[in-house]
Every structure is written in structure tokens, then in C-alpha cells.
Amino acid sequence: MSARDLVLTSTAFNGFWLLAVWGQWDWPLLLGLAAVWLRWPRAGLWALPIALVGVGLDSLWTQAGVFRFEQLPGWLLVLWLGFGTYAWALRRVVVAAPSHWLALIGACAGAMSYWAGVRLGAVSWPMGLVPTLSLLWLEWFLLTLAIQAGLRRAMQSDSRRACAHRVRPGEEA
């Protein structure tokens, strides 16, 4: 992925994030994701488990009193599906990145995105800023490493499958 493509993809995801968190446009964004998944079905397959884990973690934090939502919003699921799709789109960059740097960037960006959600009024943090940011930083550090490991496995599996289907010279197709 070129630097230009990385910037464009990341800018598109940040716009998606803003529409989900601030605009709370769950249905239009879900339709947009469905269009992406029709073109790249593996992105949708990858996004679903990430969304389930993400919504599960957010539900856990809500039950534990770390987050407060009026109710667990539909846009949150759409946001996690969008993030999973974004991770799939960046899979080559994610897999190639040194794990320690990627985890630090993921921890900071993930935690700060929740803080931005607080600033936009989408969620509140009853425990306060420092404890919540600390928990989120740790969560995103570990989540980033898990996503990188999962993408590595997925790409290795794809590579093995592609090698198994190649036709050697002299063999019939």
C-alpha cells in the first residue's frame, strides 16, 4: 500500500468514525459497509469477529461502570464493523509493522478515539479520565497485538492456499 493510499484509507475511516460517533448514522454507514463487503467479502468476514469482540469489551466496560451510554447504541456495532473492515484494508501494513510500534500507536489512537467520543457527548466516563484512559490504553495495546497476529495467520493461510493451487510447469491446469 502506498503512503497515499494509507492516508486516503485512514482519512476515510476517520470520516466514518465521525459519522458514526457524532452523527450516529448507523443505517447509512451499515449500507456503505455492505457495499464494500460485496466487493471484498473477506473484509466483512474479518470485520465480524472484531466487531463481536469490540462490542463485547464495550459492553463489559459499560456493565463495570467504566462507560455510560443511554443504552448500548447501534452505531457502536457499526463502528466496530467499520474498524474491522479498516484493519482488513490495512492488513499488509499491519502485518509488516514492528509489533511494539504498532501496539503503541494502536493503544494511543484507540484510547484517544474514546476520549474524542466523550468530548462529542457520545459516552461518559463515570470513573474519570485517568483510570479510564489507562484501561483503554491497555485494552487497545493488547487488541492491536491480537489483530496483528490474526492478520498474520490469515495472510499466511491465504499464501499457503495460493501456493497449493499453482500449476507447475508440465502439469495440467
TrEMBL record:
The keyword Protease does not apply. It comes from Ferrimonas pelagia. It holds the Pfam family DUF2878. Keywords: Membrane, Transmembrane, Transmembrane helix. This is DUF2878 domain-containing protein. The lineage of its organism: Bacteria, Pseudomonadati, Pseudomonadota, Gammaproteobacteria, Alteromonadales. The keyword Disulfide bond does not apply. The chain crosses the membrane at residues 16-38, 45-66, 72-89, 101-117, 129-151.
